Amino acid sequence: MTTHTIKVKVNGVEYVREVEPRLLLSDFLRHDLGLTGTHVGCEHGICGACTILFDGEPMRSCLIFAVQANGHEVTTVEALGTPEKMHPLQEAFQEKHALQCGYCTPGFLMTLKPFLETHPNPTDEEIREAIDGNLCRCTGYEHIIEAVKLAAQKMATRS
Length: 159
What we know:
Elements: E1 4-10, E2 13-19, H1 25-32, E3 51-54, E4 57-60, E5 73-75, H2 88-95, H3 105-118, H4 124-130, H5 142-158
Parallel strand pairs: 1-5
Antiparallel strand pairs: 1-2, 3-4, 3-5
């Protein structure tokens, strides 16, 4: 089978790898790089669990091939924070109980990070619009909305 060489920066680290042309970016991240924080739910781009940042923009990693990431920068949830130093969004999700099983949480976080950078004081409606492509089957959305508002407050006080 033909492979292609790709050079992609993931979470600030440059990787050069040989990949099959039809390898999904989500599978590349999870299986080739071991970044299992990117979850795969529907594999149709509907649930948002696989959301990553592609050159800073939220994107469904199950909808693009790894070869399309050649020359680009990808950020996964692993780069957001650490257990010792969480991102304000992660802290807020924890404090507001905005997750239950947590399967969808990485997708929400990676969708909301750039949203809060451009919407530092979001309304409930703006938050609902921002997360309308992310599905949560456990918690519901009220705690998530409360967490986003708390994260916005935390980010405002830290800047």
